[in-house]
Design goal:
The protein has 320 residues and is an alpha/beta fold. It has eight helices and 17 strands.
């Protein structure tokens, strides 16, 4: 039976929900599903992961104990674990951490690497990716002894497949890395990673200035959403490039994407077209986004967004 490994990511001591869709993809292969964990508590993670087809959770240590973040050390530890457990296919999130780690693992194994996949078939070793600004979906086939795939966060649905997961420890022998991590500078405490968010509310040129993005932040806080932006807003200096959604920014797959004052250029649409539901708020009925969304509100966003925020702040019936 083939063995599939899923590289599990932890944020702020908690399992990222987007890991679960990757676990489901591994389970669909019919092989034994193993989770690799380099931080966090394996026993706690196993309680959740076993509900989605993971049969074994391996907590990876180094000869010096738990490994603090260093992509070179982690990549070497993952490779040693793959060899020990006879893993030939590795899946992980195409997040900032995943892109760093999976690329290093693939390079050292001389294995094919496909990143930002929106579908994967581990039996045929194929994966689908968005191409040409989202105008086409291409299917790629990988060949070789090892296969490495980075899955777009939230692109795959988590499907329950309850089982019992065993927990094991694996000690990797890592030498002195050529890369030294001196300091990690976290973002703001209330920041939500755009690529991980279930709901995103984004602003474009129609926001008129940077201060008006406070309207979006206020609305986002009511539903634990992330705030994004179009390239026009970023180029104007209103918000950081870290918030940019689009071909030259971040590619996202939230359950709900709310576009406020965004025209809907091809480049922006390429970065969010895989959202479950797209809602556009724009006073121009002929804006491109209005023909690409599921729901359109043809009105001034400065009237609609504050009203939406007030509505969301009201307690629902039956809530305490």
């Amino acid at each position: 039976m083939k063995k599939i490994a899923v590289l599990i990511e932890i944020r702020d001591g908690k399992l990222k929900p987007s890991n679960l869709g990757v676990c489901s993809a591994a389970h669909e292969s019919g092989g034994e599903c193993i989770a690799f964990l380099l931080e966090g508590n394996a026993a706690d993670a196993a309680a959740t992961l076993q509900e989605y087809g993971i049969e074994k959770v391996v907590e990876i240590f180094t000869t010096h104990g738990a490994a603090s973040w260093n992509p070179e050390v982690w990549a070497e530890a993952i490779i040693q674990a793959m060899v020990y457990y006879e893993i030939h296919a590795l899946l992980g999130l195409a997040s900032m951490q995943g892109k760093d780690l999976l690329a290093r693992v693939a390079a050292r194994l001389e294995a094919p690497l496909l990143m930002d996949c929106i579908a994967v078939n581990l039996v045929r070793h194929t994966a689908k990716k968005s191409q040409f600004s989202g105008k086409a979906i291409a299917e790629f086939k990988t060949c070789g002894d090892y296969h490495v795939y980075g899955i777009r966060p939230n692109a795959l649905t988590a499907v329950p497949a309850p089982c019992r997961a065993a927990v094991e420890s694996f000690k990797a022998s890592t030498g002195s890395p050529g890369l030294s991590v001196k300091n990690l500078q976290p973002g703001l405490a209330n920041d939500i990673d755009l690529t991980e968010a279930n709901v995103i509310i984004s602003g474009g040129r129609g926001m008129e200035n940077g201060d008006n993005f406070n309207l979006l932040h206020a609305c986002a806080q009511t539903i634990s959403a992330a705030v994004g932006a179009s390239r026009a807003a970023v180029d104007a200096g209103w918000v950081s490039h870290a918030l940019q959604v689009g071909q030259t920014g971040k590619t996202v797959s939230p359950k709900v994407y709310i576009a406020c004052g965004i025209s809907g250029s091809v480049q922006h649409f390429a970065g969010m077209k895989t959202a479950g539901i797209i809602i556009a708020i724009n006073k121009d009925p002929h804006a491109a986004i209005m023909s690409k969304c599921d729901y359109a509100v043809c009105a001034n966003l400065f009237d609609i967004v504050p009203a939406l925020t007030r509505k969301l702040r009201k307690p629902h019936k039956g809530s305490k």
